[in-house]
Amino acid sequence: MNGQRLGTIVGLELTQRTRSVAWYVLLGVFGVILAIVTGLSFVAWNFTDGPGAAIYSTIVYITLLLVVLVSPTLSGNAINGDRDAATLAPVQVTLATTAEILIGKFLAAWVTGLAFVAVSIPFLLIATLGGGGDPATIGVSLLVLVFEVGIIAAIGVALSGILSRPLFSVATTYLVVAALVIGTLIAFALVGFTVRSEATSEYRSYNYEEYEGDTYPCLPGEEPTGEYSCDEDAEITCGQWQVSTYEVPRFDRVWWLLAANPFVILADATPTQFDANGYPVDLFGQIKTGVRYAQQPPDLEQRWDDCSREPVEDTPTPEEIMARTAPSWFVGMALQALLAAGLLWWSWARTKTPAGRLPKGSRIA
User: Of all residues in the chain, what percent are helix, strand and coil, respectively (each to 5)?
Assistant: First the structure.
């Protein structure tokens, strides 16, 4: 691997992209969308205490969403597009190796995707100055965002070397990215509802017919508040236990399907900021809370007794749930890296020269 040849390939790729007027128009549209989102975020999150953290996370997620929508178009024809334009073969007959060509195009596509992240920096600074300036949250979220941009670029470049038709490779790149973003959610929901367990619910209450007027015993944790309130000294006459059975989905057995989702990785890896009540203050924490709650097994034996005067147990806060559940972001990043590396290796095998066999209709020079 020669650094000079690699730098030349990256420079040529970036020069080709920046010569196009459409490239700057696309960046401008990207900036306008982020400006609108930032303005709406300040209005939407203004009711919270310290809305900066929520605004910052919203901008980061919108940036990732836009990169997911744009990057496959910019990287999905990097190799087969040059083959169709008869500009790949002249590079292949130079001293540049197949690995250098492939890695150079990948790095150029990665830098191209990071240009969109650079456009979002002014808006992220605005959100940071508005109160979302936790250093750990900012640092980790940006690192994960850069990583995800690189993964999408690698998938696009690899598929452009595997598939011979640029349009087909771009469409396939979108499908692979959609499988990570949307497909994981669909699989999580469908498999979770398919895997079910039988739950039992037992309920008992006192006989209302035996109490006259407005006198009735207090429920667990209830205290008398006035003339028409409960009577804590009233004798409780209980009815029969009512037992019912039903099936509940077991999302706790399939939550790992979400591990490779880019948006879940971003949320799960970013340190969570909590308010005084233990609830997250930004989108990172809210999405992470949903994933961590999915890890909790359902209560298959529920019991509610109105006749008991024992207080009801408090529901755990998101902060407590996160403290006793396992993160999965490193597993998701490893799966994505393996997918990208595998596709790049396949692309190298299809692009290397001399080629013993070319796909039907492939152009040589």
Answer: 60, 10, 30
* pLDDT tens digits, one per residue of 210-224: 555 556 666 655 666
Give the Cα separation of 341 and 316 in Å (integer).
41
Q: Report how far apart, in Å, the C-alpha atoms of 328 and of each of 65, 158, 352, 365 are.
A: 21, 26, 36, 47
How far is residue 144 CA from its own chain's centroid?
A: 11
Read off the pTM: 0.82
Residue 165 token pair: 């038709």
Separation CA 292–CA 269 (nearest Å): 12
In DSSP terms, 245 is beta-bridged to 200
DSSP string, 242-255: EEEEEEEE-GGGTG
The total of other beta-carbon atoms located within 10 Å of residue 222's CB is 13
Which residue has tokens 């490239």?
Answer: 23
User: For the residues of 286-349, what is the DSSP string, one character each?
Assistant: HHHHHHHHHTSPP-SEEEEETT--SPPPPPPPHHHHHHTS---HHHHHHHHHHHHHHHHHHHHH
> For 264-276, how does the pLDDT look when each residue is reduced to its tens digit (9 = 90+)?
999 999 998 888 8
